[in-house]
Amino acid sequence: MNPELPGPDFWALIQPHTGALYQARPTARGFGSDLTAVIECEKGPFFVKAMRNRPGGRRASLIRERLINPAVQPISPALLWHTDDDEWLALGFDVVDARRSDFAPASPDLPDVVDLVDQLGDLPLPDVARDWPESRWDRFAVDEIEAELFRGDALLHTDINPSNLILGERGRWIVDWSWPTRGAGFIDPACLVVQLIAAGHTPEAAEAWAAECRAWVDADSTAIDAFAAATRRMHRSRADRHPEVAWLGAMAAAAGAWAAHRGVAGDEVDTHADRPGARITG
Q1: What pLDDT is attached to residue 3?
Q2: What is the CATH number of the domain that holds 15?
Q3: Cβ distance 235 to 248 under 8 Å?
Q4: 124 and 257 share a domain?
Q5: Do the bridges between strand 46-52 and strand 35-41 make them parallel or antiparallel, or are there none, so unpaired?
Q6: Is the same domain home to 256 and 168?
Q7: Which pLDDT value is given to residue 16?
Q8: Mean pLDDT lowest for which of 81-90, 252-261, 266-275?
Q9: Share above pLDDT 90 across residues of the chain, in percent, rounded to a whole number
Q10: Which of 28, 239, 240, 267 is buried deepest, with most CB atoms within 10 A?
Q11: Tell me, what's the pLDDT at 29?
């Protein structure tokens, strides 16, 4: 086995699901996990995602990903097995032959990307997600009234980016459901807008792509304005705290361009206020 991979106790944990193990190939996806790898094995192959079994948000995110999978299988690879012990939690997914999408302005992937986000908006909210309200943007809103604009009963992915929308000859999938939540349906298309701007689109062009999504078309423009302003504050806060991380600065610039386009770039709030929703994920 690769020396970067876990030790024998981990492989013994998953072996009832894999059978004999032949090869493990670590992958670039799943930056928040302790292990992401394609496992070639007697019963596989499987895409395995695993984390140390320690209290905290990363452990909770893997549990959410397990719980949400039955509801998102139409656009996500199927979870085939899961296992855990005192040291590890592991999920075994169907392996799909796909690549990360390209968000650049001239990319032929864009129609498929937008269609995936639109399909995401059509997924019914499963019962398991009803107790997962989206609140990460709350402390970046002007007040509680504005934060209420982000509420809703749509199932949200909230981490729309080229690595998580993957395309293949036989299908298209949204992966890495690490923090699904319940909220306003326009939030995932709005997250796409910021990503498109970061990839080189003008704000006008990015919003034109988002307008292919019904959840965007149905949204109140006031709610989108509030979300754009909150998103700018969120990304600026993160970039200021980690100036050495280039991609955080790029996202802050993209969010700022979007907020300026919508005319909401100049207002500030105290983002250190004691409000709910202080957890921010990558």
Answers
A1: 43
A2: 3.30.200.20
A3: yes
A4: yes
A5: antiparallel
A6: yes
A7: 97
A8: 266-275
A9: 85
A10: 239
A11: 56
Residue 271 lies in a domain: no
The reply to whether 155 falls in a domain is yes
Residue 4 is predicted with a pLDDT of 63
Inter-CA distances, 75 with 156, 167, 176, 282, Å = 13, 11, 12, 22
- The strand order across the sheet containing 35-41 reads 21-26, 35-41, 46-52, 88-93, 79-84
Q: Which tens digit of pLDDT belongs to each residue from 109-137?
A: 999 999 999 999 999 999 999 999 999 99
Q: Note the maximum CA span of the chain.
A: 59
Same domain, 64 and 31: yes
273: exposed, middle or buried (Cβ count in 10 Å: 0-12, 13-18, 19+) = exposed
Closest by CA to 198, choosing from 163, 227, 172, is 163
Contact status, residue 128 vs residue 68, Cβ threshold 8 Å: yes
Instruction: Tell me if 87 sits within 8 A of 183, measured CB to CB.
Output: no
Identify whether the C-beta of residue 107 lies closer than 8 Å to the C-beta of residue 195. no
Residue 273 scores a pLDDT above 70: no
- Residue 162 in contact with residue 176, Cβ under 8 Å? no
**E-only strand ranges, the chain:** 21-26, 35-41, 46-52, 79-84, 88-93, 99-100, 154-156, 165-168, 171-174, 181-183
What total of structural domains would you count in the chain?
2
Q: 257: domain range?
A: 99-261
Q: Closest Cα partner for 27 from 107, 100, 125?
A: 100
pLDDT of residue 56: 80
How far are the Cα atoms of 110, 215, 254, 267 from residue 220, in angstroms, in the given order? 24, 10, 22, 20
Q: Are residues 106 and 241 in the same domain?
A: yes
